Each structure stands twice: as structure tokens, then as C-alpha cells.
Automatic annotation (TrEMBL):
Record organism: Zophobas morio
Family that this chain belongs to: Belongs to the UDP-glycosyltransferase family.
Catalytic activity: glucuronate acceptor + UDP-alpha-D-glucuronate = acceptor beta-D-glucuronoside + UDP + H(+)
Protein name: UDP-glucuronosyltransferase
Membrane topology classification: Single-pass membrane protein
Length: 503
């Protein structure tokens, strides 16, 4: 056999059955679902999978091992209720997220089994990390000398831009915690500029020092934080133009939004309930982090009053029992949201506007009423609203009137449903299905043992990239030229007047 052919087939076989470490450390269950779909799919393809995560997959394949870090679950944001985050300022939002996630990173690295793994002689061909305010965890890639693939559950964000070398222009890239789309008014652009600068400075001078310390403290090998920060070969983004916006991406940032929407048959009880919803059905869910049972009595009553006025049947994800619930209401602790949204009788989704929920609604062509509270929810809903698939009610203004108005408008005005159907057909119409695309790129990265084509922006300081140095240089140059000309003119003038005086 020809040597080159031998080597290629050897490399190919190695990529065919590789050892892959996944690090999905975030305590949010919806983020875990994304990791679960990606990593179990890799297991199905025959790879040996190890995943560090606070949850386990429902059906763990035999070649899939979980290192469980469940101690990260249940940490609150230092605040008793996530609901309070709704009214937090942009700056406070940025700071509290970084500080909170520092705690998660440390707990993950302190885990006994994680430490055992780091002390072992284990070998990995690839490390996949969920990029989520946890940069020290990129150390797994450098420690095991394996290429790094990042996965962003939030799509393209200001920090992801930095790691992959995509310039962040505050004029057209809204910060994740704003309620803006990328098309901003003058005053929104000013606030967005403040947000961008504040986020950059806080990350650099308050967040990185802590992550740098974790890297030195918890990894047995000595690793260079500044090098691992920008060393990902590939970043997979949980986004698609229909759920986010049209933006510029380098070749190694790949959008796979919608990859987790794999609809399964419904439980019999819910199937019967929805089949019987001849006037349509509404799904009400505030996601896995926010608890409907924590809503104040007033808010809960307002929601009940709205439901009582509707002829549609309603499914509500509610964590406790409700003795005095209206007749058209079905409650359950956990609802299979993806599958329910796929039922043709579901006409509306009342949601907190998390990215997964938004994607699932758009995938299934269901219009939304958004009640966004924190993180990227306001932005997701602003985008959905500008695409004409959602009405938005601010949580602080939630009342019987505002909610009913939004629900009625979204149900009665056919444009919402039509737009949702249009986006649904677009997100499904792809040259290659997104989960398949993700697999292709992950295996591609292994076949080429990490890609090293870095964009030039990663070699420049920010003031070089935004041409501040050139602007200063040109300004000083013009100033010098101006001063020289001005000086010469003064000299000439004084000589002339000297001559005149002498005459
Ligand atoms: C960066 O990634 C490349 C390609 O995977 C790898 O060869 C190199 O060792 C990595 N460097 C660090 C500091 O992790
Ligand atoms: C419900 O919405 C429709 C269509 O926008 C509107 O014509 C109607 O007046 C609304 N009904 C109420 C009670 O607000």
C-alpha cells in the first residue's frame, strides 16, 4: 500500500473512532439539552465520549461516560429570585453574570472526579467546551494537547466575537443584555457603546484574573491563560438567521441553530388533550430556570383572568398543584415543549424568550407572546418582534390588560402566524441538516488535527484593529504640517513688516 494512502486511512480511522471530552458545565438544564444532543450523536457515531456536566442524558449510551458535577445546580445568582433581574441595569447584569459564573467554574474544577481525570494519563483526540463565562475550562484542551472546539448556546455574542476574531462594532452589534436588535437608533447606539466598553473592561480586568487564577490552581500542568483564550479551532453557534440576525462570520464559526429540535411522539394524555383542542391550544412556559410557582399571587391571578377569557385550551408548565385552576387549563411540572409545539392545534406560545424556546417556536411555526426577564431573553424577543412573529409584554408591566391585549393581537392578527410559518419553512430548508453539519465540522477538526488559520484580527491590538493608532498618527502629522506652515507664515510676515519699518 502506498504510504500516503496508509497514513490518510489511519488518520481517517482515528477520526472515525476518537476519544472526545465534552465540558458542558453550566447549571441551566436547557443548555445541557444542547450538549446532550451533540455528545450523544457523537457517541452514536462510535466515538468514545466523556462529558463533564451537572446532568446525565436520559438514555446514556454505553460508550458515553458522565462526570457528574451536580454541586453547581441550585446556586442562586446571589439574589433570591431571578425575577428581580428583569429590572437590573445593563451594567449590573454584566457584572453579576461574570461573578456568578466564576463560582460555577471553580466548583466544576474542584470536583473530585474532575481532578482525578486531570491527574490521570487519559488521552483525548478532541475537547469540546461550552463557551459560557468559563475560560479556564479551555485548559482541558491545552492539558490534554487536543484541539479545541467551542460551542455557544447563545449564538454570536460580544465575547465569542473576541475569541474568534470577529470585530465588535457597537454601531451595529447589540450587546446581549440589551433589548435591541442590530438596527439601533442614535441613543440606543450610545447606550450600546457604553455596554460594549463596560463589558470588555469588566471581562478583562475583573473576570479574567479570577479565571487565570483557577487555571493555575486546578490544572496540574502549567498553562498559559492568554494563549488558551484564543486557540479554538472551531466554534459551533446555536443560531440561525431566522432566530438571530444576518451577521458576518469567519469560516470556522458555523451556525447549527435548530439542531436540537428532534420531535418525538407525545405522551398519550397530552396528545388526547391537544387533539381535543378544536379551538386551538396555547402553551405557557417560562423555561427551566424561572419558576411559575414563584410568581406573585397578583400576577398569577392576572394570568388566570386572561386564560378564563380565552376559548383555547392551555398547557402551563407549573411546578406545584393548582387547586382553583380554570377548566381549560392543563398543568404539569415538566412539559415536552418541543413536541407540544409541533402539534398542529397549538396556535400560540407564551414564553420567557430563551433562545431554545424561540428556536423551537420558529422551527414549528408557532407565534409567540414574549415575557422576557433576563440574560439574552429581551434581545431574542426584540428580534422575534422585528421579524413579526412575536408580541412582547415587559414583565414589570404584566397585568390582565397588557397580557390579554398581546395574546389577542397575536392570535387574531394573521400576520404573526404567516410570518412564523415562513420562518419555519426557512429554518428547515438547509443544504445539510444542522446536527449533521455539526458532526461534519467536529470530525473535520479532528481529521485536520485542529485548524490554525487565524484571522488577522487576532494578531492586532484593539487600537490597531479600530485604526486608532493610524488616526492618531495622521492627526499628529497634520498638526505638525499645520504648525510648520503657520510658523513659516509668521516668520515671512514679520520679515515683511521689518522691511516696511526700515523704509
Ligand atoms: C492551540 O491549538 C493547536 C491546534 O489544536 C495546538 O497544536 C496547540 O498546542 C494549541 N496551543 C495551546 C496553547 O493550547
Ligand atoms: C382582538 O384583536 C383583534 C385584531 O387585532 C381586534 O380587532 C379586536 O378588537 C381585539 N379584541 C379585544 C377584545 O381587544
Amino acid at each position: 500500500m502506498n504510504v500516503a494512502l496508509f497514513i490518510t486511512s489511519f488518520l481517517f480511522l482515528r477520526a472515525q473512532c476518537a476519544k472526545i471530552l465534552g465540558v458542558f458545565a453550566a447549571p441551566g438544564y436547557s443548555q445541557f439539552i444542547l450538549g446532550e444532543v451533540l455528545m450523544t450523536e457523537l457517541a452514536k457515531r462510535g466515538h468514545q465520549i466523556t462529558v463533564i456536566s451537572p446532568y446525565r442524558p436520559k438514555d446514556e449510551p454505553p460508550n458515553y461516560k458522565t462526570i457528574l458535577t451536580k454541586e453547581v445546580i441550585g446556586d442562586t445568582n446571589g439574589d433570591d429570585s431571578l425575577w428581580n433581574l428583569e429590572s437590573q441595569s445593563l451594567f449590573k447584569n454584566i457584572m453579576s453574570t461574570y461573578d456568578y459564573e466564576n463560582g460555577i467554574t471553580e466548583k466544576t474544577l474542584q470536583n473530585k472526579e474532575v481532578q482525578e481525570l486531570l491527574q490521570s494519563n487519559e488521552h483525548f483526540d478532541l475537547v469540546i467546551v461550552e463557551q459560557f463565562f468559563n475560560d479556564a475550562l479551555k485548559g482541558f484542551s491545552a492539558h490534554f494537547k487536543a484541539p479545541l472546539v467551542l460551542f455557544s448556546s447563545m449564538g454570536l455574542t460580544e465575547w465569542n466575537r473576541e475569541y474568534m476574531g470577529v470585530p465588535m462594532l457597537p454601531s451595529m452589534n447589540a450587546v446581549s443584555y440589551t433589548q435591541y436588535t442590530n438596527r439601533m437608533t442614535f441613543f440606543q447606539r450610545i447606550r450600546n457603546l457604553y455596554g460594549t466598553i463596560f463589558d470588555y473592561l469588566y471581562r478583562r480586568y475583573f473576570f479574567y484574573p479570577v479565571q487565570r487564577k483557577f487555571l493555575a490552581q486546578y490544572f496540574p500542568s502549567s498553562l498559559d491563560f492568554d494563549k488558551i483564550l484564543y486557540n479554538a479551532s472551531l466554534m459551533l453557534l446555536n443560531s440561525h438567521v431566522t432566530t438571530s440576525e444576518n451577521t458576518l462570520l469567519p469560516y470556522n464559526m458555523v451556525e447549527i441553530g435548530g439542531f436540537h429540535v428532534i420531535n418525538k411522539p407525545l405522551d398519550k394524555e397530552i396528545q388526547t388533550f391537544l387533539d381535543g383542542a378544536t379551538d386551538g391550544a396555547i402553551l405557557f412556559s417560562l423555561g427551566s430556570n424561572l419558576h411559575s410557582s414563584d410568581l406573585s399571587q397578583d400576577t398569577r391571578n392576572a394570568i388566570f383572568q386572561v386564560f378564563a377569557k380565552l376559548k383555547q385550551k392551555i398547557l402551563w408548565k407549573f411546578e406545584t398543584d393548582l387547586p382553583d385552576k380554570p377548566k381549560n387549563l392543563f398543568i404539569a411540572k415538566w412539559l415536552k415543549q418541543r413536541d407540544i409545539l409541533a402539534h398542529p392545534n397549538v396556535k400560540l406560545f407564551i414564553t420567557h424568550g430563551g433562545l431554545l424556546s424561540t428556536e423551537e417556536a420558529i422551527f414549528n411555526g408557532v407565534p409567540m407572546v414574549g415575557i422576557p426577564v433576563f440574560a439574552d431573553q429581551k434581545m431574542n424577543m426584540a428580534r422575534a418582534k422585528s421579524n413579526g412573529v412575536a408580541s412582547v409584554v415587559s414583565f414589570s408591566k404584566l397585568s390582565e390588560e397588557t397580557l390579554f391585549e398581546a395574546v389577542n393581537e397575536t392570535l387574531k392578527n394573521p400576520s404573526y402566524r404567516n410570518n412564523a410559518k415562513r420562518l419555519s419553512s426557512m429554518i428547515k430548508d438547509r443544504p445539510i441538516q444542522p446536527l449533521e453539519l455539526a458532526m461534519y465540522w467536529i470530525e473535520y477538526t479532528m481529521r485536520h488535527s485542529g485548524m490554525t488559520f487565524k484571522p488577522s484580527s487576532l494578531y492586532l491590538y484593539w487600537f490597531e484593529m479600530y485604526m486608532v493608532d493610524i488616526a492618531c498618527f495622521l492627526l499628529i502629522n497634520s498638526l505638525v504640517v499645520f504648525l510648520v506652515i503657520f510658523g513659516l507664515m509668521r516668520i515671512c510676515k514679520s520679515k515683511k513688516s521689518d522691511k516696511q519699518k526700515k523704509q
